[in-house]
Amino acid sequence: MSTTTKPSYNILNFADKDGEFRRKPSVFRNTISKDPDAIFTPEKDRYHLYIAWGCPWAHRTAIVRALKGLENIIGLSVVDYIMGEKGWKFSTPEETPGCIPDTVNNAQFLSELYFKANPDYDGRYTVPVLWDKKLQTIVNNESSEIIRIFNDAFDDFVPETKGKTFYPKQLASEIDKINDWIYNKINNGVYKCGFAETQDAYMNHIGPLFEALDDVEAILSENEFLVGNTFTEADIRLWTTIVRFDPVYHTHFKTNLKTIKHDYPNILRWARQIYKIPKVADTVNMTHIKNGYYKGMKKINPHGIVPVYDGPDLNVNL
Ligand SMILES: N[C@@H](CCC(=O)N[C@@H](CS)C(=O)NCC(=O)O)C(=O)O
Q: Can you tell me which residues bind glutathione (predicted)?
C-alpha cells in the first residue's frame, strides 16, 4: 500500500521554480484537551511521538517531552538520520545507533502513518508526528503546536511537573511576537538560505538572518533569556536552531557571515546555560544532526562528506 504510493512532488526537491524555498503549512492541527466534547483527550500511553534527532522542529518536541517528564506517558520513535526518496525510514538501533523503530504501527517508512491517517494525503511526510494509538490517526504534525500540547495537557499524570509552563499567560503575547520574527528570519531563515536555488533567493534571506541574530544578541546581552528573564518556549524554539548553526548551517546552508562561537558571545552563553538544564543534553545527538544534513541532503552536498567540526563546546561550567 502506502510505501509504493508516490506523492505528486519530488520528495528530495525543496525549492520552488523561482529558486525560493517556501515551507508548506502542516496539515494535521488538532489539539488534546479535557473538554467534554474533545476528540483527543489526555490519557496515559494513548499517544506516540515520532521524531528525527537531526530535525530542529522535532528536537523542540523532544525537549519539551523530556522537561515535562512525559517519557512514560508518551512513547517515542526515532527515524534514521537519512531521508531518502521514500522519505524518513525506520531502522533498528543495531543498524543505526540512536534510532527507535516503530513498534506502534510497525511502519517501515514515516509516510505510512500519513496514509493511515489520510489515504489521499499528498503533502510532505514530516517529523515530528504526534500519533493517536486509539483513533489510529495523526493528532498534530506541527512542532510549535505539539510543544504547547505537551506544556499542559498531560499535567494530571505527572505531578512533579504539573503547572511548570514554558508559555506563561502573562508573557504569552510577548512570546508570540518574538516567535514570529525568530521563526521567519532565523528558524526558517536558515532553510530559506540553504535551500535557495538562485543567488537572488539566497541574498534575499541572508541579510535578515544576521540582522535577526544581531537583535537576539542584543536582547541576550541584557537578559538571561529571550522573554521576561524566564526560560520559555521562545528559548527552546530558537535553541534547536542555534545548536545546529556553526556545525551545520554555517557550512551546509552557507550562512557564513558570522559564527555563534566567535561573533555572538551572549547567544553562546545562553546556549550553554540551556544545555546545562537537566535532560536537555540527552536530546542532542550531533551524529544524527550532522549526518542528517550532510549525508541526507545530496542535492546540497552531493558527496555526502561530513565536516569534522561539532560546533562550540556547550558543556562548560558557567
Ligand atoms: N512545520 C513543521 C516542519 C517540520 C519539518 O519540516 N520537518 C522536516 C525535518 S527537519 C521534515 O520532516 N522534512 C521532510 C520533508 O519535507 O519531506 C514543524 O515545525 O513541525
A: 88, 124-127, 142-143
Range 281-307 average pLDDT: 97
Domain containing 155: what range? Answer: 1-164
* Residue 81 known to be catalytic: no
Measure CA 178 to chain center.
17
Catalytic residue among 47, 50, 81, 191: 191
Q: What is the pLDDT of residue 226?
A: 98
Q: What spacing in Å lies between the alpha carbon of 223 and ligand 1's midpoint?
A: 31
Which pLDDT score is estimated for 6?
76
Domain assignment present for residue 317? The answer is no
C-alpha cell at 158: 505527572
User: What is the pLDDT, as a whole number, of residue 1?
Assistant: 44
Distance 222 CA to ligand 1 centre (A): 33
Quick count: other Cβ atoms within 10 Å of Cβ 58? Answer: 25
Q: Binding site annotation covers 125?
A: yes
192 C-alpha to center of ligand 1: Å?
Answer: 13
* Residue 124 known to bind ligand: yes
**Model confidence pLDDT, tens digit, residues 17-33:** 999 999 999 999 999 99
Q: Is 127 annotated as a binding residue?
A: yes
Q: Is 67 within the bounds of a domain? A: yes
Residue 217: which of 172, 270, 275 has the closest Cα?
270
Statement to judge: residues 17 and 130 lie in one domain: yes
| 55 given a catalytic annotation | yes
Q: Nine-digit cell at 148?
A: 504547547
CATH number, domain of 260, equals: 1.20.1050.10
